[in-house]
Design goal:
The chain has helices at about 20-30, 45-50, 55-65, 70-75, 80-85, 90-100, 100-110, 115-125, 125-140, 265; strands at about 145-150, 155-165, 165-170, 175-185, 195-205, 210-220, 225-230, 235-240, 245-250, 255-260, 270-275, 280-285, 290-295, 300-310, 310-315, 320-325, 330-335, 340, 345, 350-355, 355-360, 360-370, 375-390, 395-400, 405-410, 415-420, 425-430, 435-440, 445-450. It has about 450 residues and is of the alpha+beta class. The radius of gyration is 27 Å and the shape is globular.
Length: about 450
C-alpha cells in the first residue's frame, strides 16, 4: 500500500502519529481484493481475523477518535461493499459511518452509469446500490422477475421501441400501435392476496398500406419514422394524433434501413437517414420532409445504417462495412467483415457506439475498434442469423432467427445467458438497466423484467 498519512488541520501534528494511522488504514483496507461485490458478510474465519483479536479491534476503533467522520467516509469509499459489511461489525461508530448515505452515493456513481436521484431520495443510496447490484446479477444469470407477453398484432412484430411507460410496436399486419403500461391488481386464488401486475393497453393505432419493416421513435416529440416492405418511401407519423405528417419520397430502390440523427450530429434540426437495397443513402429533414442530400454507399444490398455523433456506418450483404464522415458525404475507411469458419458473411444488423462497431451475421457477432480496424473479435452463441442487437457499455444483447436472445459481457467470447425468447424469429429488441423488450415473428412482444425490488 502507498505511504498514507491523513492529518486533520484542526489536530496537533505531534499527537497524530504517521505510522499508527498508516497501520490502521491498512487494516481497514486489507479485505479489498479478497472477493467480488456482494452483500453477504465475509465468512466467520475472515470476520474473526478482523474483529476477534483485541489489538486489531482497538486499532480500528481508535481511528474513530483520531480522524473526523468526513475523512473516514473518504477512506471507506475505496473498499468493496462486502468489506464495508464486515467492518460494520467492529464498533457502533464504524457501523454508523458505513451506513452513511454519501458513502453509498459515491460507490453507486463509481459503478453504475445511470444516476437515479429520484429513487435515492425515496429509498437511500445503499438500498439503491444493493438493488442495482442484484439486478446486475439477474442479467448475468438470466434470472428475470417477470415476463409479460403483449398480444396486439395478427402477424410478425418487426420493430419495437419503448421509453418509460410507453411502448410502440410495428408489424407485418401493416399496423403500428402505441401502448401504455398500467398496473392491475390480480387476485391470487391460492392465498386470496392481491398482487400488482403490469400489463399494456393500446392507446393509439396507425395503419399503413404495406407491411411495416422497421421504424425509429422520437418519444420526446411523439414522432416515429417508418419504412415498409417493398416500398420506396418512408413515413413520418405523429403518435399523439395517429396520422401521417410527411411522406419521404425520391428513393429509387426499396428502403431497407433507417436511423434518426439528433441535431448535434448534423448541425441542424432533427434529421433521419434512410438506406435502400440499391445502396443509396439519403438524409432528410424531419420537420419539412425535404431530402437534403444523398450518397451511393457502394453496397450491393444495403441492410444497416447507424449514426453516432458525426460518424455514419453502413453495412450490406457483402463483406465489409463502411465508415463515413457525416458532415461531408465522403468515404473514410472500411471495417473488416465478420468471418464465419473461413467464409466472409454479410452483416444483417450493425451498431456504432463511440469507437466500437458491433455487427450481427450468421451464427456470430463481431466487435471491431475502428481505431484499429484490422482486429475483429468474433463472438459465437447463435445458430442462425443475428437479426438485431444493442450494445450499452460492456453489456450486449442479441436476437436471432434461431428464436433465441443472448446476453453477453463483451469481455468474453461466449454469451452469459441464452434465453428461448420466441417460437419464431426474434426481429427486434431494446433494453435498459432493468428491462428487455423483444419482438418476435410469433406476433408477440415480450417485456422481460430483471430488476430487483428496492
Amino acid at each position: 500500500m502507498a505511504d498514507i498519512c491523513v492529518v486533520p488541520s484542526s489536530y496537533d501534528p505531534d499527537f497524530v502519529q504517521k505510522d499508527i494511522i498508516k497501520t490502521k488504514i491498512e487494516l481497514l483496507c486489507n479485505f479489498r481484493n479478497q472477493q467480488e461485490d456482494g452483500f453477504s458478510c465475509v465468512n466467520n474465519t475472515q470476520l474473526q481475523e478482523l474483529v476477534g483479536h483485541n489489538e486489531q479491534k482497538k486499532a480500528v476503533s481508535s481511528l474513530t477518535t483520531i480522524l473526523p467522520d468526513e475523512i473516514l467516509v473518504n477512506i471507506l469509499s475505496y473498499l468493496w461493499p462486502s468489506d464495508l459489511c464486515a467492518l460494520s461489525a467492529v464498533c457502533q461508530q464504524i457501523r454508523f459511518i458505513v451506513s452513511d448515505n454519501i458513502l453509498w452515493r459515491s460507490l453507486y456513481k463509481s459503478k453504475f452509469c445511470e444516476y437515479r436521484t429520484e429513487f435515492a431520495s425515496r429509498f437511500g443510496w445503499r438500498r439503491l446500490y444493493e438493488a442495482q447490484s442484484k439486478t446486475d446479477i439477474n442479467w448475468k444469470t438470466g434470472k428475470y422477475t417477470s415476463c409479460v407477453s403483449v398480444i396486439g398484432h395478427s402477424s410478425a412484430v418487426r420493430s419495437v421501441a419503448y421509453e418509460g411507460n410507453k411502448m410502440i410496436t410495428g408489424g407485418s399486419d401493416k399496423v403500428i400501435r402505441v401502448w401504455e403500461a398500467v398496473w392491475d391488481h390480480v387476485l391470487d386464488k391460492e392465498n386470496g392476496d392481491e398482487s400488482p401486475q403490469k400489463s399494456f393497453v393500446a392507446k393509439n393505432t396507425m395503419i399503413d398500406n404495406k407491411m411495416i419493416r422497421s421504424f425509429q421513435a422520437d418519444f420526446a416529440n411523439d414522432i416515429i419514422v417508418s419504412i415498409a416492405m417493398d416500398s420506396t418511401s418512408a413515413k413520418i407519423w405523429s403518435t399523439e394524433k395517429g396520422q401521417t405528417l410527411h411522406t419521404l419520397e425520391g428513393q429509387r430502390g426499396w428502403m431497407s434501413c433507417l436511423a434518426l440523427c439528433p441535431p448535434s450530429s448534423c448541425g441542424g434540426g432533427m434529421r433521419v437517414v434512410t438506406g435502400a437495397l440499391d445502396g443509396c443513402v439519403r438524409l432528410w429533414d424531419m420537420n419539412s420532409g425535404r431530402n437534403i442530400s444523398s450518397i451511393m454507399s457502394g453496397h450491393e444490398s444495403l441492410r444497416g445504417v447507424c449514426v453516432d455523433g458525426q460518424v455514419m456506418m453502413t453495412s450490406g450483404t457483402e463483406k465489409g462495412m463502411k465508415l463515413w464522415d457525416f458532415r461531408v458525404p465522403q468515404f473514410r475507411s472500411t471495417v473488416p467483415a465478420c468471418v464465419v469458419e473461413g467464409a466472409a458473411s454479410g452483416n444483417y444488423c450493425v451498431q456504432l457506439s463511440s469507437h466500437i462497431v458491433v455487427s450481427g451475421s450468421k451464427g456470430c457477432v463481431a466487435m471491431t475498434d475502428i481505431r484499429n480496424p484490422s482486429t475483429t473479435k468474433i463472438m459465437k452463441g447463435h445458430t442462425d442469423v443475428v437479426s438485431c442487437l444493442q450494445l450499452v457499455g460492456s453489456k450486449l444483447v442479441t436476437g436471432s432467427m434461431d428464436h433465441s436472445v443472448c446476453i453477453w459481457d463483451t469481455n468474453n467470447s461466449t454469451p452469459s445467458v441464452s434465453l428461448k425468447a420466441h417460437s419464431s424469429f426474434v426481429w427486434d429488441l431494446q433494453f435498459d438497466e432493468n428491462k428487455l423488450v423483444t419482438a418476435g415473428g410469433d406476433s408477440c412482444v415480450k417485456v422481460w423484467d430483471f430488476s430487483s425490488s428496492y
